[in-house]
Amino acid sequence: MSLSRLWPFLVFLALGALLFAGVLMSGRENREAIPSPLIGKPAPGFALHLLHQPERMVTMDELRGEPFLLNVWGSWCPACRDEHPYIEALARSSKIRVVGFNWKDERQDALRWLQQFGDPYHLIVVDEEGGTAIDWGVYGAPETFLVDAEGIVRWKYIGPITPAVIESQLKPRLAELGVAL
Protein backbone atom coordinates (compact mmCIF):
# COMPACT_ATOMS: atom_id res chain seq x y z
CA MET A 1 0.00 0.00 0.00
CA SER A 2 1.42 3.38 -0.97
CA LEU A 3 1.78 6.28 1.40
CA SER A 4 -0.58 8.45 -0.68
CA ARG A 5 -3.41 5.96 -0.01
CA LEU A 6 -2.55 5.67 3.70
CA TRP A 7 -2.41 9.44 4.29
CA PRO A 8 -6.22 10.09 4.47
CA PHE A 9 -6.58 7.19 6.93
CA LEU A 10 -3.84 8.64 9.18
CA VAL A 11 -5.49 12.07 9.11
CA PHE A 12 -8.81 10.45 10.02
CA LEU A 13 -7.18 8.62 12.97
CA ALA A 14 -5.52 11.83 14.21
CA LEU A 15 -8.81 13.76 14.07
CA GLY A 16 -10.59 10.90 15.83
CA ALA A 17 -7.98 10.92 18.61
CA LEU A 18 -8.38 14.69 19.06
CA LEU A 19 -12.16 14.36 19.21
CA PHE A 20 -11.91 11.54 21.75
CA ALA A 21 -9.52 13.56 23.94
CA GLY A 22 -11.89 16.54 23.79
CA VAL A 23 -14.84 14.42 24.87
CA LEU A 24 -12.86 13.01 27.80
CA MET A 25 -11.71 16.47 28.92
CA SER A 26 -15.20 18.00 28.65
CA GLY A 27 -16.49 15.61 31.32
CA ARG A 28 -14.25 17.16 33.98
CA GLU A 29 -15.80 19.60 36.39
CA ASN A 30 -13.03 22.17 36.29
CA ARG A 31 -14.60 25.47 37.25
CA GLU A 32 -11.17 27.10 37.25
CA ALA A 33 -10.94 26.60 33.48
CA ILE A 34 -12.49 30.05 32.97
CA PRO A 35 -10.72 32.22 35.54
CA SER A 36 -12.22 35.63 36.18
CA PRO A 37 -9.98 38.62 35.51
CA LEU A 38 -11.92 40.40 38.29
CA ILE A 39 -10.46 38.33 41.14
CA GLY A 40 -8.50 40.69 43.39
CA LYS A 41 -9.81 43.78 41.60
CA PRO A 42 -12.59 46.25 42.38
CA ALA A 43 -16.03 45.02 41.40
CA PRO A 44 -17.41 46.83 38.36
CA GLY A 45 -19.60 49.74 39.28
CA PHE A 46 -23.25 49.77 38.44
CA ALA A 47 -26.51 51.60 39.04
CA LEU A 48 -29.37 49.14 38.64
CA HIS A 49 -33.06 49.19 39.52
CA LEU A 50 -34.37 46.98 42.30
CA LEU A 51 -36.74 44.18 41.35
CA HIS A 52 -39.17 44.87 44.21
CA GLN A 53 -38.88 48.67 43.97
CA PRO A 54 -38.32 49.42 40.28
CA GLU A 55 -38.37 53.16 40.91
CA ARG A 56 -35.28 52.85 43.15
CA MET A 57 -31.72 52.30 41.92
CA VAL A 58 -28.84 50.76 43.84
CA THR A 59 -25.18 51.33 43.10
CA MET A 60 -22.20 49.11 43.76
CA ASP A 61 -20.93 51.76 46.18
CA GLU A 62 -24.05 51.31 48.34
CA LEU A 63 -23.30 47.59 48.76
CA ARG A 64 -19.85 48.17 50.22
CA GLY A 65 -19.23 48.02 53.95
CA GLU A 66 -19.59 44.28 54.53
CA PRO A 67 -18.92 41.23 52.35
CA PHE A 68 -21.69 39.89 50.13
CA LEU A 69 -22.43 37.21 47.60
CA LEU A 70 -23.74 38.40 44.24
CA ASN A 71 -25.83 35.57 42.80
CA VAL A 72 -26.67 35.81 39.08
CA TRP A 73 -30.00 34.12 38.31
CA GLY A 74 -33.00 34.18 36.02
CA SER A 75 -36.46 32.66 36.03
CA TRP A 76 -35.59 31.03 32.70
CA CYS A 77 -32.58 29.20 34.21
CA PRO A 78 -33.17 25.53 35.20
CA ALA A 79 -29.85 25.28 37.09
CA CYS A 80 -30.89 28.29 39.20
CA ARG A 81 -33.71 26.15 40.59
CA ASP A 82 -31.19 23.45 41.50
CA GLU A 83 -29.00 25.82 43.50
CA HIS A 84 -31.83 27.85 45.04
CA PRO A 85 -32.17 25.82 48.29
CA TYR A 86 -28.45 26.31 48.97
CA ILE A 87 -28.65 30.04 48.26
CA GLU A 88 -31.60 30.18 50.67
CA ALA A 89 -29.57 28.35 53.33
CA LEU A 90 -26.66 30.79 52.93
CA ALA A 91 -29.04 33.74 53.28
CA ARG A 92 -30.80 32.19 56.30
CA SER A 93 -27.46 31.78 58.06
CA SER A 94 -27.32 35.60 58.34
CA LYS A 95 -23.51 35.30 58.13
CA ILE A 96 -23.28 36.80 54.65
CA ARG A 97 -25.56 39.09 52.66
CA VAL A 98 -26.84 37.47 49.49
CA VAL A 99 -27.62 39.95 46.74
CA GLY A 100 -29.64 38.72 43.79
CA PHE A 101 -28.63 39.78 40.28
CA ASN A 102 -31.63 39.09 38.05
CA TRP A 103 -30.24 38.78 34.54
CA LYS A 104 -32.07 39.14 31.22
CA ASP A 105 -35.44 38.43 32.73
CA GLU A 106 -38.93 39.86 32.54
CA ARG A 107 -39.89 41.51 35.84
CA GLN A 108 -43.18 39.63 36.19
CA ASP A 109 -41.49 36.28 35.44
CA ALA A 110 -38.84 36.97 38.09
CA LEU A 111 -41.44 37.96 40.69
CA ARG A 112 -43.53 34.86 39.93
CA TRP A 113 -40.42 32.64 40.22
CA LEU A 114 -39.56 34.13 43.62
CA GLN A 115 -43.13 33.69 44.81
CA GLN A 116 -42.99 30.03 43.80
CA PHE A 117 -39.50 29.16 45.09
CA GLY A 118 -38.90 31.77 47.80
CA ASP A 119 -36.97 35.01 48.01
CA PRO A 120 -33.79 34.63 50.06
CA TYR A 121 -32.10 37.79 48.80
CA HIS A 122 -31.15 40.84 50.84
CA LEU A 123 -32.06 42.79 47.71
CA ILE A 124 -32.28 42.06 44.00
CA VAL A 125 -30.85 44.25 41.26
CA VAL A 126 -32.13 43.87 37.71
CA ASP A 127 -30.03 43.77 34.54
CA GLU A 128 -32.67 43.32 31.84
CA GLU A 129 -30.41 44.22 28.93
CA GLY A 130 -27.32 42.37 30.19
CA GLY A 131 -24.82 45.24 29.91
CA THR A 132 -23.75 45.13 33.55
CA ALA A 133 -23.37 41.35 33.37
CA ILE A 134 -20.87 41.83 30.54
CA ASP A 135 -18.85 44.17 32.79
CA TRP A 136 -18.82 41.43 35.45
CA GLY A 137 -17.75 38.78 32.92
CA VAL A 138 -20.91 36.73 33.30
CA TYR A 139 -21.02 33.76 30.91
CA GLY A 140 -24.41 32.42 31.96
CA ALA A 141 -26.61 31.78 34.94
CA PRO A 142 -26.12 30.81 37.64
CA GLU A 143 -22.86 32.44 38.61
CA THR A 144 -21.87 33.64 42.06
CA PHE A 145 -19.32 36.23 43.13
CA LEU A 146 -17.92 36.92 46.60
CA VAL A 147 -17.20 40.61 47.11
CA ASP A 148 -15.41 41.85 50.22
CA ALA A 149 -16.33 44.89 52.34
CA GLU A 150 -14.12 47.17 50.24
CA GLY A 151 -15.80 46.07 47.00
CA ILE A 152 -13.01 43.74 45.82
CA VAL A 153 -14.05 40.55 44.01
CA ARG A 154 -12.54 37.63 45.96
CA TRP A 155 -14.14 34.60 44.27
CA LYS A 156 -16.29 33.60 41.34
CA TYR A 157 -18.10 30.34 40.74
CA ILE A 158 -19.67 29.38 37.43
CA GLY A 159 -22.60 26.99 37.75
CA PRO A 160 -24.98 26.02 40.51
CA ILE A 161 -23.79 26.31 44.11
CA THR A 162 -23.88 22.94 45.89
CA PRO A 163 -23.02 21.84 49.44
CA ALA A 164 -19.67 20.55 48.12
CA VAL A 165 -18.85 23.94 46.59
CA ILE A 166 -19.85 25.71 49.81
CA GLU A 167 -17.60 23.44 51.90
CA SER A 168 -14.57 23.23 49.63
CA GLN A 169 -14.50 26.68 48.04
CA LEU A 170 -16.81 29.25 49.61
CA LYS A 171 -16.19 28.57 53.32
CA PRO A 172 -12.39 28.95 53.03
CA ARG A 173 -12.77 32.23 51.15
CA LEU A 174 -15.28 33.54 53.65
CA ALA A 175 -12.90 32.57 56.48
CA GLU A 176 -10.21 34.72 54.82
CA LEU A 177 -12.66 37.63 55.20
CA GLY A 178 -13.39 36.78 58.84
CA VAL A 179 -16.82 35.28 58.10
CA ALA A 180 -17.52 31.83 59.59
CA LEU A 181 -20.44 29.89 58.16
From TrEMBL:
The keyword rRNA-binding does not apply. One of its GO terms (cellular component) is outer membrane-bounded periplasmic space. InterPro entries: Periplasmic_diS_OxRdtase_DsbE, Redoxin, Thioredoxin-like_sf, Thioredoxin_CS, Thioredoxin_domain, Thioredoxin_ResA/DsbE_sf. Pfam families: Redoxin (PF08534). Its main location: membrane. The keyword DNA-binding does not apply. GO terms for biological process: cytochrome complex assembly. It is found in: Cell inner membrane. Residues 37-175 form the Thioredoxin domain. It is a single-pass membrane protein. Gene3D superfamilies: Glutaredoxin. PANTHER family: THIOL:DISULFIDE INTERCHANGE PROTEIN DSBE. This is Cytochrome c biogenesis protein CcmG/thiol:disulfide interchange protein DsbE. The lineage of its organism: Bacteria, Pseudomonadati, Pseudomonadota, Gammaproteobacteria, Lysobacterales.
